[in-house]
Amino acid sequence: MRISHIETIPYAIPYTHPLKFASGQVHTADHVLVRIHTDDGLTGIADVPPRPYTYGETQASVLSVIQDIFAPQLTGLQVHDRAKAWQIMNRTVHNETAKGAVDIALWDLIGKAAGQPVHKLLGGYTDKLRVSHMLGFRPAEELLREAQRCLEHYGIATFKLKTGQRPIDIDVEAARVLCEGLPAGVEIYVDANRGWSANEAIEFLRRTADLPITLLEEPNDAKEAMGRRRLVTQSPIPVVGDESVPTPGDVSRELLSGGCTAVCIKTARSGFTQAQTILGLCEGLGVDVTMGNQIDTQIGTTATITFGAAHEATSRRAAELSNYLDMSDDLIAEPLQIRDGAIAVPTIPGVGVQIDDAKLERYRLDK
Ligand code: MUC
Ligand code: MG
Asked: 237 and 319: one domain?
């Protein structure tokens, strides 16, 4: 079964309200749908969320790197030959989410050809993942109401608070209002998206030491290595690397140099193949992982569920699966359901996504 051609479809779906965080904000899902077609008529699907403020990719750059650089070299390749696909793609540096989507679309094809859900092929550990909901920048009382709604309507009991603002008092207040306003047993952790300096992050930890915050994600720029290491050494809670660790090499560099003590895995930027390498590294080293959200659609979220539910270590913690709730619509034919704070793993062959053709027609930008 060989790749016959690769389709890349740019589309745009507005958000009902923007998600704001220290490194940027999202008002519209201006993504790219990737469809890899084979000579025997199967189609593998994946979604690309370009994140210029994280990886430097844009919708236009994703279209260009896939069509101009990857597709000519990948066409004709057998779909099972993922190692060859990665070798080809890695001749081009960065372009993380474009590469991740090609890998996921290949896995989708492998699952469809085998008649198996991909989470079974990857490991088949469990059939659902608990959901962690991401709270963007908003006044503290609004954040509390959003979290209370999520708890009441969906049973979501884990929240990631976006921080990294100046002055840090804004974040300290938000963390306090959430921790004190939500029932005991609800988990809160924070993600500063590099918005603070190391000293500001240390100050945040000091001023919230009485709160049960469980993780500190990407507090400052990990490239500022000395400050970062001092912060990691002083932090009483794990410091999670996210945008500093998109590849296995980045993971080993950051862990070995003391840049982080836990790792966020995002299938959107690693595909399943590189995500498995990252997971193996972390498991071998005794480092906790989280399943992150690249501000994904339901297509991307389904990929995260497929990978997260496949392995024991990725299903221990609640996974970030609910950013799509802020979108006004989606391309997926069968919407995801959050029940009792969890989403079930898809049971159909492949990654588990079917596209609603009418919606694709409505939102595609290349008509
Ligand atoms: C996150 O965990 O950081 C915001 C920027 C990005 O690249 O991902 C999101 C969520
Ligand atoms: Mg993050």
From this structure: yes
